[in-house]
Prior knowledge:
The complex is a heterodimer of chains A (303) and B (409). Chain A has helices at residues 2-13, 31-41, 65-72, 88-94, 143-160, 165-189, 206-212, 230-242, 256-266, 286-301, and strands spanning 24-28, 45-49, 75-78, 107-109, 197-200, 215-219, 247-251, 269-273. Chain A has 2 domains: 15-181, Rossmann fold (3-Layer(aba) Sandwich); 190-301, 3-Layer(aba) Sandwich (Rossmann fold), CATH 3.40.50. By secondary structure, chain A is α/β, with parallel strands linked by helices. In chain A, helix 2 packs across helix 6. Chain A has a 4-stranded parallel beta sheet with strand order 2-1-3-4, with helices on both faces. In chain A, strands 6-5-7-8 form a 4-stranded parallel beta sheet, with helices on both faces. Chain B has 409 residues and is α+β, with helices and mostly antiparallel strands. Chain B has 2 domains: 1-72; 104-125 and 158-401, Porin. Chain B has helices at residues 2-73, 114-117, 197-203; strands spanning 99-111, 122-136, 139-148, 151-161, 169-176, 209-218, 224-232, 248-258, 263-275, 281-293, 303-317, 320-336, 339-349, 357-370, 373-384, 388-399, 401-402. A 16-stranded antiparallel barrel of chain B has the order 1-2-3-4-5-6-7-8-9-10-11-12-13-14-15-16. In chain B, a hairpin with a 7-residue loop joins strand 13 (339-349) and strand 14. Chain B is elongated. Chains A and B meet through helix 1, helix 3, helix 4, helix 7 and strand 6 of A and helix 1, strand 6, strand 7, strand 8 and strand 9 of B.
Amino acid sequence: MKKAFLIISVFLASSAFALSPEKLKVVSVYPDYGWLASQVGGEHVDVSVLAKGTQDPHFVDPKPSFLVELHRADLVLVNGLQLEVGFLPPLLTQCGNGKIQPGASGYVDLSNFIKPIEVPVGGVDRSMGDIHPFGNPHYHLDPRNMAAIARGLGSVFASADPSHAADYQKNAAATAASLEALDAEVVRALVPLSGETVVAYHATLNYFFIHYGFTVVGFVEPKPGIKPSPTSLMELEKTMRDRKVKILIVENYEDLKIALKVASDTGVRLVEIPALTGGEPDVKTYPDLMRTIVRDLLAGSHG
Amino acid sequence: MRSTAIAAFMAGILALGVQAQQPDKRIEELQKQLQALQQQMQQMMQSYQGQIETLRNEVDQLKAQQVQAAQAAQVPTTAQGSVPPIPAAPPNANVANPAISVLPDFTYSAGNDPYWKSQNAFQAREVEVAFSAAIDPFATANIFLSVESGEISPEEAYAAFTGLPCGWTLKLGKFKMDFGKQNNTHTHTWFQVDQPLALRTMLGDEGLNDVGVSVSHLLPTPWMSDLTLEVQGGRNDVAFSGQRSDLSYLIAWRNFWDTSDNSSLEAQISLAGGKNVTGHGTGLGNLAVTYRYKPLATGTRASFLWRTEVIRENYRGADGLNRTTGAFSYADWQFTRGWFAGLRADYAEHPLEPRLHDKGGAMVLTFFPSEFQKLRLQYERVNYGGIGNRDAVVFEYGFAIGSHGAHPF
């Protein structure tokens, strides 16, 4: 046993394998930022994504297969605001890559580039549900935030790979401009829904609601991450009737049975949306995602 | 006369010049007034712009607070406007403190199973107190204290180094050996109320868990594969003696494949060795296979896990070599949000009495009201070698408070 142990130790000690430094290796936890990294990095980056667009972003399994990508990464792009707290820390601990540990330059918390909303004032505890103590983490559904992140990634990539800094900065500016144009497009498209009264399943779309002028009267989850009880659903349905809510919006990874029941009880239209890039087969890019959400909302409002 | 005419002519020229200069001055004055007005206007515009921005920010902040309030209290709200400014940062006074969590686990048992009969019907089986924090930029600390029957002991307490050269990871301290999958789990992560018979019988209640050093490295394979080497002090109730010079060693080779977007297969081979209380050697082998199915398709809350471990133990004592085998296999099926049903089959031979073997099974129903509470009901029947069938019904309740880090998959 001892002999085998020593032989394998020597084998491992000599197995330090170097990887080609040709491209900047970027691992994005979520697909929206993976798309953004590809736009900003262009041909100089090799982007991989951990979570699928069809997954609930709160509950991604920390599969060991993710370790392969993380082990080789130069940069890891995290959403931050504790969205990944349930699965990313053990992966980072196990991946054997000091470059992307929290505090290192390769650990890029994208929430640093945006202005979070709903930062709790005062104490936070779990009696408030699964609340995020640093603010609502679903900021990607406001294209202006994505534009800010694009500019930030331009600087991050330029710093990590100075030989292509000019390309990164140019791509970042172009991507940010295209996202601002996308924002203007969404604003125009949603004019018919300005002030629309809605109920949502979870607080995923709050950045979207605030920016595009929706009136939110409640959530199916009585508190973030908490399964609704019959009592909480009765109260919600009463509110929906009193406020003449027309649309119930649910992320397509949530439990549709509950949303369908609420929609059936109240007669409102259920609008099922993808909340992440890749959340539906045709939603291959971030602009696809935003346009699909707009399309679904407009279709839902017209019955 | 001539001089008078010249004087008159000059005076005329001068008068004309004065008349020509007066409009220029007037224009200059007007231009100056215009510039002053423009400056005033710009200053006013800047002032108004600043006031508008301030008011807009205040309005945005109020609207964001309204949405937050609606989320918390389900009160109607109107949410319109742009993204609010950065609110005040949350208090950061605890930044130097470790993340602390407490996870009590209580059981109520009934029946004639000797394992459960030796304990009180109602018992606080364990209270786990966990601390974790970065030690410095190079290592993180994880400390898990176990409070059982009024005694506090470090279940695990180690530093994990993640920034080592060439992709190595290193653990120093007291930790559970990477022997199979079940050995290095904590009570609150088990899929059943108790540990499988094979682990209890062949490795003792505490399993392979001692002070030592662990290194691991990913292998350059197309799939996820890593190798772990560990050396520990070798203290164990059954397999090893824990004498000063009698260390225990482990080599573990783990492989993981994504068989599809929805499923994965994991296989691990672990070999451990050391000296037992007779001064002779004990060799342990473990083959652990886990299959997981969790559809990523939208709107589902179902999952399935199947795990099997086979343990082989070669125990050389004063009377020769004893070869024993143990195994367990369990399945856990999530059939809706928060609800799980499971089955387990057990088999274990006794290392010190190979003629005896135990076999049994368990049925489990678990409900998680939230991520932080667990209720579990388990029925199990075990046929103990030399005793016969024994039954137990166990109810378990556990909860978690504080910030408890995620465990490895």
